[in-house]
Amino acid sequence: VISVITISDYITVFGSNTYLNISHSWIGDLVVTLTSPAGTTATLHNKAGGNADVIDQSYSSAAFNGQSTLGDWTLNVKDVAAEDTGTLNNWSVTFTGIGDVAPAAPTAGFEFSANYLAVEFSDASTDVNGDITNWSWDFGDDSSSTAQNPTHTYAETGSYDVTLTVTDAAGHTSSKAMTVAVSNVDIEAVLKRAYKSRLGKLRVDITWQGSPSEMVDVYRNGEKIATVENNGIYRDRERRAVGDQFVYQICDESSACSNSVTVNF
Description:
Elements: E1 2-7, E2 10-24, E3 30-35, E4 41-46, E5 54-61, E6 71-79, E7 86-100, E8 110-115, E9 118-123, E10 132-138, E11 144-145, E12 151-153, E13 158-168, E14 173-182, E15 188-196, E16 202-209, E17 215-220, E18 223-229, E19 233-238, E20 245-252, E21 261-264
Antiparallel strand pairs: 1-6, 2-5, 2-7, 3-4, 3-6, 8-9, 9-12, 10-11, 10-13, 13-14, 15-16, 16-19, 17-18, 17-20, 20-21
């Protein structure tokens, strides 16, 4: 098996570390080498391991010190017995060196946390050159920001398409869009009664108030179990419920959710 990684950056190598993940019925039959663009070959694995069936480790080498990373790095996996089968699952090479990484575009990304109508945004953009210089946020409600990690408060309940555009020192840009749902609804849920028999027959009554929606979703232990009319009460019935703790939550179309109601038996 021959696999090639092409590197476009000119870096003078001071050290290398090659990671291998290979499945094979007898790794003691394998010889694995890495060849640099300059033609230097380093043997990483040489018929070691006997009848073990996986190589999952890293190999450091000084064989390429002083050479450039620019070009094709060729991994060669040879089975000297030729009677077994295997798979090169993954490999990578990491260099320690000095030089300039070629300019590359950033990758925009962000996370957010909503508390009623207020949302905290956290920049999660990346750039191999580490030179992002500008953040431009469009909050989807005709508001914007150039802060890296802004907080924005919406005027009303709804879903908004938020876009972050980042720009690096070379002028490269990248954008990421996500839908953010906010709500000023405060749903209060209360346990009315709960029963569970020795055979697992479950009956739990939950009441709530505060949502203006026509329908609400009922969640038990993080999974939606029903969508019902917003009449303020729901009876959960299960013939053979498994477990001794059940956590309920009521959510509506505005993305608002009630407090968690925990039932222990």
